[in-house]
Amino acid sequence: MSNIFRSELIMPYAKAGYTAGIGEWTTRNGEAAMNISPAPFYKNLDNGTVSGILRNEFIPNTSYIIDLWIDVDEVVYNNNNVAGGLTLKYTDGTSEAFSFTGPKGWNHKKVITPATKSIKLLDIYYYTSTPVYYRWDSYIAPITASNVNKVGQLDICNIIEN
After folding, report:
1. Would residue 130 count as lying in a domain?
2. Which of 7, 11, 31, 132 counts the highest number of beta carbons within 10 A?
3. What is the DSSP-derived secondary structure letter of residue 58?
């Protein structure tokens, strides 16, 4: 399996009528990055009460490696930097924040989720509708079993340095 934190998997979750801030690629601080604004994804589920992206992309009871580089420097309300980013929501009602308050440049957070919990969706943190940027090397990928074959070759889907 591969990275599911991709524009083509994020864009379908935007509300109709939005054409910007829905995961398109841009340059941010000299790096290629996805531009994601809260408004296109806010209150877009059938019941109209929560936001969410990638809600149909997660495999139940699967461990994921989530490695995100996030820039929230322009997320400002009343001349104060406020939080921006994502919240990982599990089906059991618990959550994990991937939100930061700027200005700091690129912020980094890496988490490996437990295989005993299922991920429901990523919720867009919404304090203001200013875009948040996710660097090109950010990713979310399932962790699958590794296997050492009898020939001594390692068969693994994710090799992470350090």
Report:
1. yes
2. 132
3. P
